Amino acid sequence: NSPLEVDRGMAGQQGAGAPYTPVALAEQQQAMEILKSKVFSPTAFNAPEDLYRHLAQQRRGFNFYTTTEDPKVHDAVLALQKGILDHVLHPVVLKRLTDSRLYGNGYDVSMFMTDLTEAIFAADARGDVNTFRQNLQMEYVNRLSAMVKGEQKAKYDTPSQNMAVYALNEIRDMQDRRRNVNVETEAHAENLKLVIARALDTNS
Known about the structure:
Layout: E1 4-6, E2 20-22, H1 25-40, H2 49-53, H3 73-88, H4 91-99, H5 109-121, H6 131-148, H7 158-176, H8 183-200
Antiparallel strand pairs: 1-2
Helix pairs in contact: 1-5, 3-6, 5-7, 6-7, 6-8, 7-8
Protein name: EcxA zinc-binding domain-containing protein
InterPro entries: EcxA_zinc-bd
Pfam families: DUF4953
């Protein structure tokens, strides 16, 4: 959501408040906690195997010539998470976090990006990463990479780009500290580091 509340009352109108009032810091942090636990958490999409097994279209027949019949659970979950990231990492939203500091917003882009990175990486930073989180973490790293290199870079202000670089370095360090994880997680960590290295490579 926007970090601002907008009052469209006319100047001098009775009851009109300030045109722009930042949403309270506690409310913005609470919103992040909800995303962390309900959308980004390693357990956010835990469900009994039997439930996932029965996620099928009601009418099953032979109408799957161009696709497969099995439910695309990972695609559906990632689409939901992408929708959230589309909004919270939009260049206009990030610029607004910085501009609104000038009139009272206490949740700046550094706090927001730090919290978002933690929500996506911290819970399983020292353990195995499930496949939902692998998809989410790679999506996030790809978006951070686009903020510092490539065609999308120019859309982001300097504070946002700075925090993207900072987050990429933090994520790389997390992967370097991984020990005693399964092969799938080790492969995921190596792939993340490869993407980050390409993003931060000043020679390309």
